[in-house]
């Protein structure tokens, strides 16, 4: 039964879990787009036929073969071959199932691009072979862009998954060993991240051939050359190249993360292997002592095992120093008491608050200006003010619930007409703050002069 492909694709998306199982089978085996017929029949009867609607009719094997979703059904071997477009669609739907590009994939794309560039340059301009060669080059650049972008997404998901496993390992979880995690990080970097990194690296040089960047640059130089001078074509190709090579920053970030994981895990792994080796040799050295075959049948600090294994150094002194702590009863309150004493003895200094200078450009709103002016006018008249700034600070701080150091600036302007202030004979630089801002100022004073009679 012939159907529109949009109907079939809609049915596939509705039952994507069945097709994801097929995709997982492909990835777990040799990578060929073949699945066992019985596997699909089981999922078809168990999942697809149970649902309502006509999906059971649309997604049976004969319909999918007739409409090209399954491109081959080998009844002798019992295998079904999927259409490549459907596999790519499924990988596009689930980024975790996106297949990372290997070194062979990048080499194939690079070789195809070099061949396409050489073919464009070799054809006479504006001829039919030239137009076809240029179309092939443009299609290949679009395909490379799409594959590189999806590959970055897939690698990012893989690195994020490893980051979660590393977080579990770092928190002391026993679900994964340091060796397994180290091997996962190394495998992901060597097999998938490094080839992508080298492919889009704009400064990558290759021996006896051309890299992706150098090959595209050769075509750009060809169009921008003195004889052709098709600068519009050169600019278009340059933009396409820049879009692809811009993923160099993303892959460089993933590389940095994996290198950090690898560095930390390598140290932990070396410590683990050293301790495991020392422990194994320690057990071997004890075997002759078990049956009383030697006179000195006790393991002491002078035993030969300790002469060449520095991993076990200091165990005796550690036991003497920390044995009481190591043998604490889990039900005792001693641990909390010890912790409380430690906290009380520790000198905890309050965190210093960083003050900021008061900005001179700030302005108060009109209502606030009137409030400040009224407070200063209503205050009792003073005959002696040794520090005018401090006087205003104290008065406004007591009168305003939302006082800030900014109020001092207007307060100074409002009080000057009321009191004939002056600078003292000895200039003094002072500083005040409200916990957020600070203000440096020269001290001014007011002394009421006696009236002349």
Tell me which CATH architecture of the largest domain applies here: Up-down Bundle
CATH class of the largest domain: Mainly Alpha
Unreliable residue stretches: none
Strand order of the largest sheet: 1-3-2
Give the strand content: 5-15%
Distance between the termini: 123 Å
User: Tell me, what's the shape?
Assistant: extended
Q: What is the averaged pLDDT score?
A: 79
Number of β-strand runs: 8
Number of domains: 3
Topology as a string of helices (H) and strands (E): HHEHHHEEHHHHHHHHHHEHEHHEEE
Contiguous helical run count: 18
Radius of gyration: 40 Å
- At CATH level 3, the topology of the largest domain is Methane Monooxygenase Hydroxylase, Chain G, domain 1
The protein's oligomeric status is single chain
Largest sheet: 3 strands, antiparallel
Helix proportion range: 55-70%
Look at the helices and sheets and give the structural class.
mainly alpha
Helices and strands in order, then pairings?
Elements: H1 5-14, H2 16-28, E1 34-36, H3 37-48, H4 55-58, H5 61-66, E2 70-74, E3 79-82, H6 84-93, H7 103-122, H8 128-170, H9 178-200, H10 212-223, H11 231-245, H12 248-290, H13 305-308, H14 315-326, H15 334-345, E4 356-357, H16 366-378, E5 384-385, H17 388-399, H18 406-415, E6 429-433, E7 437-442, E8 446-447
Parallel strand pairs: 4-7
Antiparallel strand pairs: 1-3, 2-3, 5-8, 6-7
Helix pairs in contact: 1-2, 7-8, 7-9, 7-10, 8-9, 8-11, 8-12, 9-12, 10-11, 16-18, 17-18
């Amino acid at each position: 039964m012939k159907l529109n492909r949009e109907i079939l694709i809609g049915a596939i998306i509705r039952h994507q879990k069945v097709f994801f199982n097929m995709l997982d089978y492909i990835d777990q085996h040799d990578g060929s787009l073949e699945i066992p017929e019985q596997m699909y029949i089981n999922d078809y009867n168990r999942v697809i036929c149970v649902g309502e609607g006509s999906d059971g009719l649309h997604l049976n094997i004969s319909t999918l073969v007739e409409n090209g979703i399954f491109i081959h059904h080998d009844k002798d071997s019992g295998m079904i071959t999927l259409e490549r477009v459907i596999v790519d669609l499924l990988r596009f739907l689930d980024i975790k199932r996106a297949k990372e590009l290997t070194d062979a994939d990048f080499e194939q794309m690079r070789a195809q691009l070099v061949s396409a560039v050489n073919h464009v340059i070799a054809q006479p301009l504006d001829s039919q072979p030239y137009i076809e060669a240029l179309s092939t080059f443009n299609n290949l650049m679009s395909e490379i862009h799409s594959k590189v972008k999806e590959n970055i997404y897939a690698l990012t998901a893989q690195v994020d998954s490893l980051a979660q496993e590393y977080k579990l390992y770092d928190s002391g979880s026993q679900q994964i060993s340091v060796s397994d995690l180290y091997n996962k990080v190394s495998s992901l970097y060597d097999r998938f991240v490094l080839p992508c990194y080298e492919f889009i690296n704009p400064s990558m040089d290759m021996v006896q051939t051309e890299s992706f960047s150098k090959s595209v640059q050769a075509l750009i130089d060809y169009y921008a050359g003195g004889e052709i001078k098709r600068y519009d074509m050169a600019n278009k190709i340059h933009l396409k190249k820049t879009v692809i090579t811009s993923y160099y920053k993303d892959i460089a970030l993933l590389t940095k993360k994996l290198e950090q994981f690898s560095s930390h895990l390598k140290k932990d792994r070396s410590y683990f292997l050293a301790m495991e080796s020392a422990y194994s040799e320690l057990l071997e050295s004890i075997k002759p002592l078990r049956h009383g075959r030697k006179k000195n049948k006790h393991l002491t600090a002078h035993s030969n095992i300790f002469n060449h294994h520095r991993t076990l150094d200091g165990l005796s002194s550690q036991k003497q120093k920390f044995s009481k702590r190591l043998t604490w009863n889990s039900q005792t309150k001693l641990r909390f008491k010890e912790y409380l004493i430690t906290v009380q003895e520790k000198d905890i200094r309050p965190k210093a608050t960083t003050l900021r200078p008061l900005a001179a450009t700030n302005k108060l709103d009109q209502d606030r200006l009137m409030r400040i002016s009224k407070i200063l006018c209503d205050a009792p008249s003073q005959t002696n003010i040794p520090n005018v700034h401090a006087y205003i600070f104290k008065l406004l701080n007591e009168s305003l619930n939302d006082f800030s150091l900014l109020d001092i600036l207007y307060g100074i302007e409002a009080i000057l007409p009321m009191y004939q202030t002056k600078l003292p004979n000895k200039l003094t630089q002072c500083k005040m703050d409200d916990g957020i801002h600070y203000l440096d100022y020269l001290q001014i004073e007011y002394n009421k002069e006696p009236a002349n009679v």
